[in-house]
Amino acid sequence: MKYIMIEERINVFSCNINKKIGLDVEILSDEATIADYCNAMDNFILNNEFSRLRSSTNECEGCDICCKERIPLTIIDVKRLKMRLDDNLSMEDFLRRYTYVIVNSNIVDITLVIGENGRCMFLNEQLKKCCYYVDRPFVCRTYVCAEISARANKLRNYILNSGEDELMFLWQDLYEKGICIVHETLDFSFEPNKYVRNAWTGAESYEDIVLKDILPTSLWQKLRKGDSIV
Ligand code: SF4
Ligand code: SF4
């Protein structure tokens, strides 16, 4: 195993998985936040060699393949993008304009709206670059088309799913006030759910969310203790 980048609280490092150079993650501090994870992933992707599985040039520069896919959003993604695009917009108007909401019974799927060309509306197609790179959603910041260890994959998925849930709860709060934002309906038998508040609630940035507060104990122990990588 070769360590090639160390952050203060999160270590993202290269390792061999399925005979390719992939990545793994370790949490080095109980204080580590989602922002630490995003920054460590940013640095790893920008500064290190690894096998990209979807790019013939093995570089992200000039590649936009993953900008043509579904982009699920977390509550913090929405807050960051709203601040960047137009902080005077109400949350209701932001969701109507920049997201796509599908309701299927009690599942509310909120994604970044797709442009008319079927690609992310923030993609500069000529340059093949993100127009809002610094504030791009969590799913964009933490994706790379490389082999990834099981625990690193679970970490990313857990953060994403819990952040999507918190955005769904915000949608639900609006719904209960009579504001119903829906772009597509598969089955509108939506019933508001009672939910337990967690570390996402009230957070304004990824710096505010400590990983230890949101991860299940079993996953936390795998990542914090540096157990086997795949
Ligand atoms: S991570 Fe996305 S941009 Fe980078 S090489 Fe893979 S598909 Fe292309
Ligand atoms: S937000 Fe940026 S990085 Fe994410 S899919 Fe859109 S163009 Fe690509």
- How many helices in DSSP terms? 7
Bound molecules: iron/sulfur cluster
Calculate Rg over CA atoms.
Answer: 18 Å
Overall mean confidence score, pLDDT = 92
Number of strands: 7
- The helix/strand class is alpha+beta
Protein traits:
binds iron/sulfur cluster; 7 helices; 16% strand; alpha+beta; two-stranded antiparallel sheet; three-stranded mixed β-sheet; 230 residues; 33% helix
What would your notes on this structure say?
- The protein has one domain.
- By secondary structure, the protein is an alpha+beta fold.
- Strand 3 and strand 4 form a beta hairpin.
- The model has no long low-confidence stretch (mean pLDDT 92).
- The two termini are 12 Å apart.
- The strands form 3 sheets. The chain has a 3-stranded mixed β-sheet. Strands 1-2 form a two-stranded antiparallel sheet. A two-stranded antiparallel ribbon has the order 5-6.
- It contains 7 helices and 7 strands.
- The longest helix has 27 residues, at 150-176.
- The protein is 33% helix and 16% strand.
- The chain binds iron/sulfur cluster (2 copies).
- The site of one iron/sulfur cluster (SF4) has 10 residues, from loops.
Describe, in short, the structure shown.
Strands 4-3-7 form a 3-stranded mixed β-sheet. Strands 1-2 form a two-stranded antiparallel ribbon. Helix content is 33%, strand content 16%. The chain has helices spanning 34-47, 75-86, 91-98, 138-141, 150-176, 211-214, 217-224, and strands at 10-17, 20-27, 99-104, 107-112, 123-124, 129-130, 184-187.
Architecture blueprint of SSEs:
Elements: E1 10-17, E2 20-27, H1 34-47, H2 75-86, H3 91-98, E3 99-104, E4 107-112, E5 123-124, E6 129-130, H4 138-141, H5 150-176, E7 184-187, H6 211-214, H7 217-224
Parallel strand pairs: 3-7
Antiparallel strand pairs: 1-2, 3-4, 5-6
One iron/sulfur cluster (SF4) is lined by residues 52, 54-55, 60, 63, 65-66, 143-145.
